[in-house]
Amino acid sequence: MEILVLLAYAAILALVAPFVLPRSEHYGSFVPAGISLVSGSVIWLLLTWLGFHYDEAWIWFIVMLAMPAAIILGTRYLNSTRAAAEEKKLADIRLGGKA
Description:
The protein has helices at residues 2-20, 31-49, 57-94. It is mainly alpha-helical.
């Protein structure tokens, strides 16, 4: 049941992400939703293994703050790495090397 709450929260974050994050051509519109769902699930699993209980507020507090942070950091990382790879490929093409 708790995973369904994380899924709903990830969907809400995915709806808000295009309005909050800077526009980018280097990732699709479902990438922020995927990042938030995977990061929320992994953090939930780790906190459960560490002994947090589902009826305590701390596990919810940590997960609900970590999911938007993961979206911001994940999309910035994807944007920068893909932009760098694109620049490298364009530089190779301009120099006449094999693409």
